[in-house]
Every structure is written in structure tokens, then in C-alpha cells.
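Record format v2
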Amino acid sequence: MTAYEKLKAARASRRPTGAAYVEELFDSCIELHGDRRFGDDAAIVGGIGMLGDTPVTYIAIDRGTDIHSRMAKNFGCPKPEGYRKGLRLMKQAEKFGRPIICLVDTQGAFCGADAEERGQGEAIAENIMEMMDLHVPVISIIIGEGGSGGALALASANRVYMLENAVYSVISPEGCASILWKDSARVADAAEVLHITAADMKQYGIAEEIIAEDFRNFPAMCASLRTTLERDLAQMAELSPDQLQQTRYERFRKFGIFREA
Amino acid sequence: MPMLESLIDKIKTAVAPSPIACTACRTEFPAKQMKKALMVCPSCGQHLRMDARARIEATVDAGSFGELFSDLKSEDFFHFPGYADKLEKAEKLTGEQEAVVCGTALIGGNPCVLFVMDAQFIMASMGSVVGEKITRTFEYAAEHGLPVIGFTASGGARMQEGIVSLMQMAKVSGAVKQHSNAGNLYVTVLCDPTTGGVTASFAMQGDILIAEPGALIGFAGRRVVEQTTKTALPQNFQRAEFLLEHGFIDCIVPRAELPETLARLLRMHKKPATDIA
């Protein structure tokens, strides 16, 4: 598949959304709402659930499955209150020593006037900075689209997984095409030059794991994903809280390609 | 003789720098006068964009700046259309190797580490080098127990470096946090324009956020917001004054008063001398 075909697959309307993964991966889920400051963003679903025998905090961006839920969820474009809810739940997880699992699927953070007014940039900045400082294990899974800063705000993790056809990009290929060639129709070319596929992420160390997709056997696919999560959490359980924070920093510290005279 | 005179005139105009027009009121001023006024329009007070070296000169104690990490150069590792050419042109235009200049300095006698972004260099977008230099700035400052003063101006992440540029946001944020956890001060001065991934990371992570008057500060571009919202936006949307009104910055300080404000902040955050006895 080309990068553009993968982009289309990642955006396909019948692809499972964040909430579907939450339901399959975790048991006894209790959803927790609100950022305690302004409101509750339905684009982000968060709460506590059991991953096997381990209580975890889950935070999932959810696009919705029909027109009504998609509108309510803003098509999976979180607002500042969504990111702030996520951060609140992450801090709560840290207090109780719970691992955090994030499921990321967004074209990007919402670009409306209200989001700007309430500090979209500040909300994302705060999430990234605080995630870099968490003393519990954090695993982020890009299940569809990983759209720029709006995705990174839930993906500054110890480990990142990419679904086989998920994409992760600094800018939407449409945006890139319109800047580069003044032609948003050249999406396929832009998708290629941006390097957005799971294989690209693995190659550049941005993601540790590629998860095979099998949506026809979704429960079996999630069972296998659960095994991978449990394996990684068991490994991270060997690390001290400080080591978890430090190794996350080291993970990101090495990103950058440049020459030094 | 008239020929010679016209030749002399031609040489004079060629040598004299062309006047600078205010981006707001369009009044033209001789370059020398504009630069002396710190690129603040003498007529309407508009704060024009300023290159990194001029800003450093206008901010720090004379002769106190010692540049750091100047030997880092960007690479076109994705062979991205037009990137190599863009880098070359930006280098020629600015005389800088990249979009941020870092170093140690004194402001009103107070030691600090500075980073200054230069919007003339590919809109000071953040690629590997910008991310790495700012990360090193925080690491250096943390190691030496020094405050960081950061002048931000940026179009956001550098698309030409793809996902690697996005990762710089987390890399720098991690370094900011480690510097902060050690009890060190970080002041950001938000300059025109601070947008995208830079707003959504280190620009908003300062202990104290100062903005220049009228500076554009936001996450999404105005046009994108207009298309999304489909309503008319207020005149001062995403301007420093708008952010102050909504509680997202601490204060707006005119350029001419910045050195004194920064000096006062640095003085008030001075750590007590460590007890060596």
C-alpha cells in the first residue's frame, strides 16, 4: 500500500474508533468526565479499567460512529477541555501508581475560535510537558490518524505503537500539499514526502511496535494487542518511578537528525 | 557633469539602505532611524519583527553575549521538495545557520541563558536543529543553575522534516521540565508571530509569559479558524492583548522596557549564594 492508501485506510469511516478499543481491551471500565475547569469534551473518552489483573487509566480520542456522535465528538478533534481532562486523569493515575494507556486517533486538535480563546496551544503544551514528567508507565497507540500536536498531546509516552495502517504526521497531507504546491489535490505526493506510515515510524524510532490489523476478527486482534500491552507493562514494572520518567526523556532526547561541525 | 552626478546619485541610493515601512501604518522611515527605535514604528508604535542579533544587542549588557551551539546545521534527510534550497536561501538572507541563536549573557548584570528565534529564517519553524539547540540551552542552564530567557517567534513545526520535527516539541518540553524541576526560572517573551507547534510547546511553558504589544500568538492560523468557525473573528483575535484578556499571558511589555523588566525578574529570582563553608 502507498502512503496515500494508508492515509485513506486510517480515515475509513468503518474503522473501529477509540471507544471500541476501550470496550475490547479493558474490563470493568468506569468512565470519568470533565476537566474540572470548563467542561467535558466528548472527543476524549477517559476512565479507569482493568487490563487483565492491572487497573489502568485509559484515555482515548473517539471520532464517533454515526453522524450524531461524530458531531457531538467534533469528528475526533479535541478542544482544550479535552486535553485538560486527559491531563487530569493522567495526574490521577500517577497519584495511584496506575499505568496509562492512550489511544490516539485525530486529524488534529480542534481549530475553532472557542478552542483558541480557551488556549488550545497552552493545553497541548501543558500535556506534553507534564507527560514528559510522569512517574508511571505510559503507552500510546496510534489507532488511526496521529495528527500533529493534537496527537502528541496524548503520545509523549514511554512506548508508542502504530496500527499497521495508522499514520502519524506533523501536518495533514492536504495542508502540506497546499503549502508546497498550492494544490491540495496533490495529497498522495505530500503523504509520500512526509513519511507518515507505521513502517516510517518504526524506522525512525518514533514507534516501537506495529500492530497487525484484523478488523473482521476485532476481539481476537484486541486480545493480541492486550498481550503486547501486558508484556510491555510487565517490563516497565521493573523500573523505578524515576527511571520511568528518565527513560521517557531519553527516548525523546535522541530525536533529531542534523550535522555538527 | 550631469552624467557624473546622476552616477553619484545612483551609487548613493545603492549604498544607503532602503527605508523601512511600518507594517501597520505604512509610514516609511530611514533604516537607521527605525533600527535605533528598535524596530518600533516612531509614528504608530507598531512592533515590527526583529532579527535575532539585533534583539540580543537590544536586550543584553554590551559585550556579555557568548554564543552556544552555533555549529549545528540542518540536513535534508527526507529529500523534501525545495528544502535544501530553502535552507540555503535562509542562510544567505540572515547570515545565520539556523532559526535560533542561543548563548549566555548578562541582563542588568544578571546571568542567564538566552535563546532567540529569528522569523526571517524559514519562519523560524522548528526542525531538528532548532529543537536540539533549545534543548541544549535548557540542559546547559539546568547544569549551571541558570535562568532561561526565551524569545519565541515561529510558524510552528518544520514540515520539511516530517515527524522528526513534531518530536522536537516533546524533546524540548522534557528539557524545560527538568530545568523547572530543579527550581530554575524560565521566562518567555512571545514575539510576533508565535504559532503552531511552538505555541503548543515551549512558548507556553514559561514560569512567566511576557508578550510584545500586538504580537500574534496562537495555535491554528487565523484563516483556518475562520474556515472552521465560519464567523467573523474579533479584530484583536490571537493578538497579545486578546491573550491577556483571556488569561493566557502575564503581561505585555513594550520592547524598549524589556531589558529593565527582564533584569528585575532575574534579580527577584536570584538564588541565595550556595553555602560552601
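The first strand of chain A starts at residue 27 and ends at 31.
Chain A touches chain B through 54 residues (CB under 8 Å).
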